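Dear colleague,

Following up on yesterday's call, I've attached the two folding results inline so they're easy to grep. Please treat them as preliminary; we haven't cross-checked anything against experimental data yet. The first protein's sequence and structure tokens come first.
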Amino acid sequence: MCRMKRKAGQPEAALLGAPSPAQDREGEALLRVYLRAMGLKRLFRQGWLKRGLPEAACESVADHSFGTALLALFLAGRPPHEGLRREKAVLMALVHELCEVYAGDITPADGVPPEEKARLERESLARVLDGLPEAAELVALWEEFEAGQSPEARLVKQLDRLEMGLQAAVYRAEGAPRMEEFLESADRAVGDRDLRALLALAAGAGSAGAATGAGAGAPAAAGADWAGGTGATAAAGADCAGTPGAGASAGAETGGAGRRQAPRPDPLQE
């Protein structure tokens, strides 16, 4: 199993300690599930670290999930996605990374076979939700997302990649190197015309900001600030080629109009 970089500490163990039958109350079970899920606040998005971003600047998986959920809130249920259920899309975005609490943020560079990755994530999700009355409902929602079985799932899959691209644009504008790989990956994975327009807007703005130094300070200084891990991860780009089919449903029909057909996903983050 690949080693994941996390902030120190385990919220559940720190606050409540190990569970026992005497403590098996519904209120405590809910609190335990919440604290387990908050482990995502301590799990770095590993793909950024593999590109040399220092931990101090790196977002967490919880940050990414929040961003994806906000995009679902803003976009689902409005044209051209008015046929999609906003609440379902937001819930799906909120749970789509809960499987990483114990499995970790496994990226293509880690070389974990898809079947093993799926097993680890399924077991992790069951462990996170253990004791929650709605566990089966949330697991089913996660399975639906993973399989891209509904218009909401296919939209959220694209929002997952779009959020990555938007974050890459921000990092690039702040002076981080090697963000073009993430922008190109998002461009291949996002097929919906309106989502692509958002991605292009962010990529264009970030490119202009980086070129002029706006929002990033002096380019040379910015590059030095972002150099944490550079060299040690110089080969990560070659190692992190996307896995065919990982998110293959991302560009499929989302219930909206004006989609670019048959995108070629190769996610650098998972």
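Below is the second protein, in the same order (sequence, then structure):
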Amino acid sequence: MHLQALPVAFLLIAVSELGDKTQLLALALAAQYKAPRQVFLGAVSALSAVSLLGVMLGTAFASVLPVELIRGGAGLAFIALGLLTLGGRLAILGSPPRRGSTVFWTAFTLVGLSEIGDKTQLSTVALAARYGDPVTVLTGVVVSFMAVVSLTVLLGDRMLRRFSLRSVQRFAGALFIVFGVLFLIGF
């Protein structure tokens, strides 16, 4: 066990995720569905699964596809997501699902897809390679995600008290476009 890997993974992911599109998505889902527990569980489960995938397969995946291709595809996807959100055509923030399990799966699917190829997934791959201790790295990453997502979801549950859903959607759409452009320019 490489003890330095735990705090490094925790801090790197926490700093990277604050204000990240994944957290924005969790915030918007919690605000819309008013089911913070299900959004938290779905988001953390997805982030854990994607991180596990990154630790296990990241090196092999990176050797098959260039990072630039992954970033470019993710950038275009986020721009499309932003445009659809701004245009009111994206159903992720539509009417609330009828059952808690649907909220869980909505959060799991959307957060999981948004995290594939993300800077935190790439950071997880790099940390696992650097320290040679995937279990400790994964532990630090997952605990960090749990801390950040819990703060995000708590804020999201209260967000609609101050802002209309349409305002949240516009803000989310604009930020998705910004993140897409940043991905395309290699930031």
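For the second protein, one point worth flagging: Residues 5-184 form one domain.

Best wishes,
A.L.
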